[in-house]
Design a protein that fits this description.
26% of the residues lie in helices and 31% in strands. It has 282 residues and is an alpha+beta fold. It holds the Pfam family RNase_PH_C.
């Protein structure tokens, strides 16, 4: 978050009130988005995403493991976020570590989805032998530059990286003791991880009496609070969190959710269109 003067704050808020932001965008407009695919050779899927000056990198690794005893018929998703000390002065020391934990918690909640289903990764499909073997999906993210709306950028990069991830095909057979055994298939090309229901997080903030999306770093200090709305490709809201020390104007809350529902599916469609154009390699 940038450190701005009172005069700069007034200028930014007045511009938003008139629907002309300092960079020329309207209140409901995102900054230019650029996506690079498969940028980490050691990962099973990876993506680097630029949202204006915000720069994040996400890599995915998939490994065989043991299901949690509390959910023996499901795989697991583990998320970590590291904030580079070069990304923002606030990330030096404990500041970056604490922010990384907070970002990872919010991102993991959107990827795991709700108990009712219909969002996030299908954890049941990641289970190979109930109670014995499942896929463990590790999503590791790095914030390279904080130019605002880091959580939104991470959610888009994570969805792209998961969609690019290919999982080894496996064969389950019974051994001499009538116990199931899991063996990796000899086929070089794995199966794609199903990320169709993974949402992105659209952050909508209250600045003055207006709702604004995709705040730049210099706009973030002007926000009273933000609503982070996890939206899937069908415009369904599958998660909702708030940040900021102030309360949200009740008259704006519904509008903020509707803005997220309107913008989310279009962003997902753009990401998916790019990913579908990438040739599959073994």
């Amino acid at each position: 978050m940038a450190d701005i003067s009172l005069g700069e704050r007034i200028y930014i808020v007045q511009g938003i009130e008139q629907d002309v932001r300092t960079d020329g965008r309207s209140r409901a407009q995102y900054r230019p988005l650029e996506l690079e695919a498969n940028v980490v050779a050691q990962a099973d899927g990876s993506a680097r995403l630029h949202l204006g000056p915000t720069d994040v990198l996400v890599g995915v690794k998939v490994e065989l493991g043991v299901p949690d005893s509390a959910s023996p018929s499901q795989g697991q998703v583990h998320v970590s976020v590291e904030c580079s000390s070069c990304a923002s002065p606030e990330f030096k020391g404990r500041g970056g570590e604490d922010w990384g934990i907070e970002l990872a918690r919010a991102l993991e909640a959107s990827l795991v989805g709700s108990p009712a289903g219909g969002s996030g990764l299908d954890l049941a499909s990641l289970c190979l032998v109930p109670g014995k073997t499942c896929w463990l999906v590790y999503v590791d993210a790095l914030v390279l530059n904080d130019g605002g709306n880091v959580l939104g950028a991470l959610s888009m990069a994570a969805r792209a990286a998961l969609a690019l991830t290919r999982v080894y095909k496996v064969e389950v057979s019974m051994n001499e003791d009538d116990e199931p055994e899991v063996e990796l298939s000899g086929e070089p090309e794995g199966a794609p991880l199903d990320a169709a229901n993974v949402p992105i997080i659209v952050s909508v903030s209250q600045v003055g009496n207006r709702s604004v999306v995709d705040l730049a770093s210099e706009e973030e200090p002007c926000a009273a609070a933000s609503l982070h709305v996890a939206v899937n490709s069908k415009a369904r809201v599958v998660g909702l969190t708030k940040s900021g020390s102030s309360g949200l104007d009740p008259s704006l809350t519904q509008e903020m959710v509707e803005v997220a529902q309107k913008l989310g599916p279009g962003i997902i469609a753009s990401l998916d269109k790019y990913i579908s154009s990438i040739p599959v390699t073994s």
